[in-house]
Write a structure and sequence with these properties.
The structure is a homotetramer of 264-residue chains. The first copy, chain A, is α/β, with parallel strands linked by helices and 264 residues long. The first copy, chain A, has helices at residues 16-33, 59-73, 87-93, 107-115, 133-141, 168-173, 204-214, 243-259, and strands spanning 5-9, 36-40, 77-80, 96-99, 119-123, 148-152, 155-156, 162-163, 179-182, 188-189, 198-199, 218-224, 238-239. The first copy, chain A, has eight helices and 13 strands. The two termini of chain A are 16 Å apart.
């Protein structure tokens, strides 16, 4: 099995300089640790808890920045799309299109994304069982696109709380597609701060490490040089300064896991 | 407080005749029981469990049928919309636009719906707490539209199961907006049949009656003359032939509840 | 079907005078409303959240007080037991022995309780499905005792939260035994205040009314003249002064429900 | 930090020979892998799903067998106790007394166990949050006994399903006491086969490995040479023949985890 891929970046794009700084720092950390790296950032936060949450730079500006990161830093880039019409322009720039968890059953969005031919990373909805993703996969496959990734990002567990079920990882792997662990959204507390989501950043490495030990193709981690002042998802992002050490450790666990694969 | 409103109809539109038959039957039953009636049907099932599930007649044909029902039967009509661009055409025909549960945090959709000036019924996401709807309400209010309804349709409870928390009804009522109990989707078993959702039709009257006793503005009930052969949601729809008796009983409970309001 | 029974009393026994005052007040309220009444109180809170919570008066003193209430007020009495050895002495005094929710699968306790011949009220564990109670019932029936009641008191729903599933009521009724809705423990927040449980007293009437509308044999409601200073369960008990009106309303709903029974 | 301890054995005692065979096989596997080993077995299954489930050999016979295993194989032994009176006799034989999950808030049982001076392993109830265990710990500490272990064995997640939250491990470790991952009960499906619990044996290594990677003091694994014919918990026990390889892998993960401790 191939070594772990790290999908990382800030929750939302802020500027070209900011994106390149994070992408550059992360690439260096991943190169040093022997991990693949994909830069992730959103041009639009389309489902903020409240209207007062910052939305982002928008499709056009956002894609421009992603294109620049891709070229300047030399890394594949991923962004999330929210309506059919965004798929083609996003795919013209990005290597991976991401389907947000709330939208993972929207058939038209899945089809439009699949038809671009880009790789498609689907976040499993907080309201879905791992095996429900079989149907999601089949929707995308119907477009002829089999470049699919499936991401665990936690299941609803009472109010304002998520829980990540480690069984979901090998179960989703039964589809034959790479499975990703989203370590930072799994520790979100949706709506937990009233007008915004809370989070338990301290548990993100717990999630990442557990998942890598079980065996995953990739981890998804949002990071920021100063999470507490980030425009979104600050409570659960990992400080950029801690990422190199985290990735180094994850790679050690990844080697051990891939030498001892679990199959169910 | 005004008497109970019944929002009812088939899960998806099948034909003009079919829609008018159900709308006519329901109107008669509601008139007889002293209930308000709003006809509900979908022109597109945009998030079917699997690709093999029937999608519906589409926006144009669907809205034509809804317009005919509205005129021929003389009842307000409600349909659900899935992307921004559908709001204006749907609002040109329908009295109430409905935001599907999975989409209840999609800011652009809420704003586009709100801007039409139509009444907006938002289904609470299976992944949201009742108080999280305060932020959803504020998004719509920002458009100047205060014709809002909030619907309980169950919360995720482990895998492939929903549970309806009766506390959600008075809590959402604290927003000041009418609260609706969706009695048939609350008993859905999402993805429970592998490639489609299961349901426990026999419990739908349990949900409706409990909610009406607590005190709600409306109940939402999907119905079909032959649920087992309906193109979607058969397992949880109530047979049309049972609706008149159910509504009669619900109106008795409604009178008692409204004479003895609960406030929290 | 027989009219609603009200099982009510303070969470724990405090003194003879206190118990008789509450029992007398409740009997009067129930008589006036046409409800049956069973006095409930605990001699020992055997599973307090923390050691600092008050335990109660103990088996001997407690049973003496219950015997006095039974005689002086002329009402059946119910108490909960925690180990086999407590069953016989408690049954010598009490009409109903109650199995606490945490203990509802302890075979020996169920058998010892059943063997007394007293009526047995089993609270469904927060960790059990309604259908799991079929096995609990069979354990008691094996003693030849078929005087069984089954109580819904909420299911675990994430951390420190319960949710009451109204479907549990008709499902448990399929056993053929009377079903009880515990309106005050269903709104507990277990461990929700760190060293003690929180509660949402304001929602207890919501639970009671919903359940009575669905159709139950009895409601279980803890009450106290000054809940905020009660030695246990203050946050979810209903003030004694509000009970007469609540019971009156519940009886109205009960009559309507029993005239229109739901069967599943 | 000390190397991983493995707490393992059959769900229930069957005979002296059987117990010694399993204990001997496990000791050899643990010695070879450098793991500490504690033999676990129950003399009584006091909360079987249904009455038809086999209970076990009883206190006296069971303790005799455990004493023989302890002496013949030279390993510490653990058993679970269900009523106060069982604590002293069990502690006369066993190194560790275990409080079953359903009983983890029964104050008297915790105190009686604590007073024996034996080490006490408390399984976190399926209905408790990790932080609720702080109060459980304080109950035992009040006896002066600070030889405490805390075990994660899954939380209720809808009906007949558990989910293991990896965050519970570092959170419970904040008490300062060793944390144990129960890999086989976490994958139980309580009541999932009607009259008995189901289980997903194939996921037990997933749970064990994830927990060890996060960092735990011990794993708890039930094992049997022929799980499908075992008198209890067959569906979730790991075949004895697979244990040596599993423990070897877990020790590799343990070394890596302990060299890179996570603190929250």
């Amino acid at each position: 099995d191939r070594p772990l891929t790290v999908i990382a970046g800030p929750c939302q794009l802020e500027s070209t300089d900011h994106a390149q700084m994070i992408a550059g720092t992360m690439k260096q950390a991943c190169d040093a640790a022997g991990a693949q790296f994909i830069f992730k950032a959103s041009y639009d936060k389309a489902n903020r808890t409240s209207l007062s949450g910052r939305r982002g730079l928008g499709l056009e500006t956002g894609l421009d920045i992603l294109a620049e990161v891709r070229k300047a830093i030399g890394v594949p880039v991923l962004t999330d799309i929210h309506e059919r019409g965004q798929c083609a322009p996003a795919a013209a720039v990005c290597d991976v299109l991401q389907i947000p968890a709330f939208l993972c059953r929207q058939t038209d969005l899945l089809l439009a994304a699949g038809e671009t031919g880009a790789a498609i990373n689907v976040k499993k909805g907080q309201f879905l069982a791992p095996w429900d993703m079989d149907n999601v996969v089949a929707k995308i496959e119907s477009t002829g696109n089999t470049r699919i990734l499936l991401t665990e990002r936690g299941s609803s567990f009472g109010y304002n709380t998520l829980v990540a079920d480690m069984r979901a990882l090998p179960r989703m792997a039964q589809t034959g597609y790479p499975v990703v662990m989203d370590a930072t959204h799994s520790v979100q507390q949706p709506g937990g701060q009233g007008a915004s989501s809370g989070g338990q950043r301290e548990f993100a490495p717990v999630m990442a490490r557990a998942a890598v030990a079980v065996g995953v193709a990739a981890v998804f981690i949002e990071t920021h040089e100063a999470p507490d002042t980030a425009p979104s998802d600050g409570p659960n992002m990992i400080p950029l300064g801690e990422m190199a050490a985290l990735i180094r450790t994850l790679m050690d666990f990844d080697r051990l896991a891939k030498a001892n694969p679990i199959t169910i």
